[in-house]
């Protein structure tokens, strides 16, 4: 049975919050909405932090959701089960090794499908655009390959691509869930920045973001050190992708697609982007590289370039 978790992250995060209830066995999902008169855009978050800490997080009073809304878009985001204000899977109540990885791409795609249908019903539109970050690109790509008639435009921000990296752990070996501390997040956020370069994070020590991250999980304080429990399914999906088994077939994605990435992003390199661009079945594929940015550009000073690139591409949804 899913545990219900009410969101306790910053009240200043962008978007009006509702809960999308599901049918039997389906988790309730937190959904955010920043209303606009233009085409609907849904943000699909990555592997380790929810919408309030990503697209909705306000640095200096301004978030990516705010930016898109100010440009006229009707903006939505949500939390996958196991994150933020959405229900926790039953596997969270037991030991990580007692269950297979929670929240893998197939399961997450079903959640994305529920959100998309909710948005289409609420707006009367027939199609939506997606912005997907990191592991979320596997989920968005999978959905876009299965339901092409629902997708107008697709922005893949630092997408995970297929690689051939022998010797990686087996995807099923990672357990059901894992714990992530703020220190681990910070180390991951800065690892690709050149040593002689000034900090690129808007909050170099995550002074506000860090406590907000811990607050996204009511059980975080029970760990020593405090840590957020998240599904391990995304890690399993990434291991599978880097062992040659990406969770969708890019050749089945026909929507116009933007690949946008930081120049220092080690999770989406030039080789990765080239591989993906050559396999997408779209007449319009763009690859934009933002200088002085990493895999976490939406938390960095380079986010202005990210926002502009994504918005310019999505503006064509009005045509």
Characterise this structure.
With 319 residues, the chain is α/β, with parallel strands linked by helices. The chain has a single domain, classed as Alpha/Beta hydrolase fold, catalytic domain (Rossmann fold, 3-Layer(aba) Sandwich), CATH 3.40.50. Helix content is 26%, strand content 17%. The protein has an 8-stranded mixed beta sheet, with helices on both faces.
| CATH level-four homologous superfamily name | Alpha/Beta hydrolase fold, catalytic domain
CATH level 1 name: Alpha Beta
- At the fold tier of CATH, the topology name is Rossmann fold
Q: Give the H and E element order.
A: EEEHEHEHEEHHEHEHEH
Please provide the count of β strands.
10
**Which runs of at least 5 residues are low in confidence (pLDDT < 50)?**
none
- The count of domains is 1
Category by helix and strand content: alpha/beta
| Rg calculated over all Cα atoms | 18 Å
Major sheet description: 8 strands, mixed
Gist of the model:
With 319 residues, the chain is of the alpha/beta class. The chain contains 8 helices and 10 strands.
What structural keywords apply?
single chain; 319 residues; alpha/beta; Rossmann fold; two-stranded antiparallel sheet; globular
Question: Secondary-structure map with pairings?
Answer:
Elements: E1 16-20, E2 29-34, E3 40-44, H1 64-70, E4 74-78, H2 105-123, E5 128-133, H3 136-146, E6 151-157, E7 177-180, H4 182-190, H5 209-215, E8 228-231, H6 233-241, E9 257-262, H7 270-279, E10 285-290, H8 303-314
Parallel strand pairs: 3-4, 3-5, 5-6, 6-9, 9-10
Antiparallel strand pairs: 1-2, 2-4, 7-8
Helix pairs in contact: 2-3
